[in-house]
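Dear support,

We are seeing what looks like truncated structure output for some complexes. This example has two components. We would appreciate it if you could run it in full and send us the complete token output so we can diff it against ours.
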Amino acid sequence: MSGPKGETLSGWGRAPVVPGHEVRSEELALIADGRPLSRGLGRSYGDSSLPAPRDLEVVSTVLADRMLSFDAASGVLRAEAGLSLDDIYRLFLPRGWFVPVTPGTKFVTLGGMVAADVHGKNHHKFGCFGAHVTELKLRVADGRVVTCSPTIERDLFRATIGGMGLTGHILEVAFKMVPVPSPWIWQESERMPNIEAFVAGLKAASADWPMTAGWIDCLSRGRNMGRGILLKGRWATAAEAPARPPRPKRRFTIPFDFPQFVLGPLSIRAFNTLFYWKHIPRVRRAIVHPESTFYPLDMLWHWNRMYGRRGLTQHQCVLPNEAGAGAARRFLEVLVARGGASFLCVIKDCGPEGVGMLSFPRPGISIALDIAVRKDTPALIDALNECVIKEGGRIYLAKDAFTRAEHFRAMEPRLEAFQRVRRIWDPDGKLRSAQSVRLFGDHP
Amino acid sequence: MRKVVVLGATKGMGRAVARRLTERGDALFLLGHEADDLNASARDLEVRGGRGAGSIGTATCDLERPEGFAAALEAADAALGGFDTVVVTAGLFATQDRLEAEPDFARRLLTADFANTVVFCEEARRRLLAHGGGTLCVFSSVAGERGRKPVVLYGAAKAGLTHYLEGIDHKFHDMGLRVICVKPGFVRTGMTAGLPVPPFAGEPDGVARDVVRAIDRGRPVVYAPAIWRWIMLVIRMLPRFVMRKIGF
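Here is the complete output from our reference environment:
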């Protein structure tokens, strides 16, 4: 069932674009047979969900999206891997339930959330999504369907959480939802004058607030470097919340690829300055819509087109607490010195490491930068990664497209243990992605 | 609240239609040819609709075994306490190349998609009319609009089905029967996986939205996505010598 000629696949960043075809069916276990990788809604930025060179076909999970059971006593939802977070949000939030951990878009599948072991604004309190997974059903390389959990086949479970889909095709996911007092968010936002204040503000807020994150103006320099807006949130109580349910937000479509100057340094500088100074007074408090809190960019359909035909990449790293309070400034200095302008720069403090063998977060400060792809992008990513290595940090695979294999190995002493578990379940190396060939040394 | 029987709710557009119906509170009963698959879909619809486990009933019903149709609809009737709407999305599909290469499968497809579907509709129609009328919503296809190279056999079966549906609409409309003939264009489901995706391809949920609206309004013909009405208008008007030349 090879795909029509000329078909290509790419991640959300639309760089790289590779020849490839998605095989779609409701019967996931069937189409997974003999294929090297599964892919959900394709929201990883780089090449995590793309076929390795010469593989061409990947399994699309999106038609396998049935909810198999929900137990209101324990909160456990069991579903097929292609179920989208959008469906869970739409159907469960009005009933007072939500996922314990959500990434910054709801257009992801459960399988993708497990494979990337996603984190959210509440990482310092709730950890990654994998911490709430009670059971997984996988189709491993030899065709067997294996159930794993924190107690059954524990190594396979730990390698699959955050394992980028490389341990097997995820067929079913069971995880614990959390009850919420209302569907609305109580949010406090505060202007931060520089990176030192920002990092201190995040740490201080993390004790009292279940959700924290911030936006940084990454073009500001010197005394103002790292200024931005810190957001702190919690679920509004039933008494605080409006009586009406939050109405679905209107969606705007970016109709075509914007020319490159639209997200050039000049426009970014103008936007950043405006965004920073329109936050008057210094501290604001309000009840806000859950979509505005969790999924602000989901309102712009195809927003990746704003970055033009050459696409975008994201660089997200975590700088560990051991690197000291100055690490975030040193990192931003590399960015500014290189003239790297980023429209969206998000900062967040991470809590303890979770169960996933290769999961991204660890205690420290995470910084995520959206970067329009240009000729000098690989050099910029190299420079950022060299700084991350120096500070003892690491990067998030779900965002990456440009990291060098030697840089990745220098950041990831955990890779070897992960590969050992993979080889037990897939001795012939049948499962792979473009990313695992690029970074893990898998054979194409 | 409608009481709806769906044949073909486990996959594709039928799955999407059933979800829209359960999410707004309609009562459902599912028919399909594989018991485990039916159960998984029933549980899915219960969770989505916020209903108790086991509240959506199922019965096996294979479009290739017409002798089971009456019993399946009887089971639905008993479980729902009488139904007022029947949705049929089930059917076989294969490319024209495969149907030409495998005459046995071609015969099966022609039988299932035309003769047996009509037999099922007749049984459903009789039951609906016995209760004073109701809605019969059946998925035909734009493939039945005109004889075309890529869908000669499949299109012939669907053309027959479309004619039958128009006929019973005329004959039984005054007796309270509402017939909805759905003509999907290219929709990205498991059925069309692997085929080249043309412009104006639709998604199952978009089709489901249009179909549920048509059921509520009793519109006799639905093209989904809607633009296929105009595409097919053009196709129907093309002269024969052009149709012989093009591959569409």
